[in-house]
Amino acid sequence: MSMDAFPIGLEMDVSYPDFTVSLALTSAKELRFEIEDGPFARTETVGVEVLPLGNGVFAVSWQEADGSAVVNVQDYDRALVHSFATLPDGRFLRMRGTMAVTRPADRISDDRPRRNKALVLEAMTSLFQRRDASAVERLYAPDYIQHNPNIPQGRDALHSLVAGLSQDVRYEPGLIIAEADLVAIHGRIHGWTEEPQIVIDIFRVEDGLLAEHWDVLQTEVPATAAIGGIPMFDPQEGTRSAQAGDAPVIRTAHA
User: What pTM value is reported for the model?
Assistant: First the structure.
């Protein structure tokens, strides 16, 4: 992750157990904070150093006029701030606060959709192209929720399903769309039933793992010129999506 993702212009209230602080990220080198009540009440603008830690997380450090040294670990994926402060009298504070955005950043810097699309693509190709059951433990949450009534609940059931797949099963990924923690992927699967099926899989991502799944499947119907000739699935749709800036598509030799 680069500094380009740091949400300059963002204003937020951070609620700690004993007080609330308002933060304004005025630039990559400066922020303003305001504490209205309590023993720490004051308003100050401080110079900061920002270090990207990856996956929407930044370490932001500064020193205040009274000598207090503060490090904030700002987690924008989870809307949390972990704060560590050494006060002038030597006391050391460890606090966790929740974010409430009061003014959005000057530009959108949410990197989750790109990361989540890559995660879903890796899962679908690992399980249904390479039939790699070991990928289930690596990519799926322990309490994975399954909305397909033909598949039992849980990660272990998914592992067993993949381990028992026929060599005839072959998956072709297509268009992928994502917003926040949700990802939908359009694809075609062979060998699941007698005829190829077009499938839309929807996943919810939590803490970097696939936590919940819905799907809709339909037997592929060949396109006919009489009604327009446009197929249900185009093997190139994912390639065009990748060229437009989405996650790259991994294809099989059969695609």
Answer: 0.62
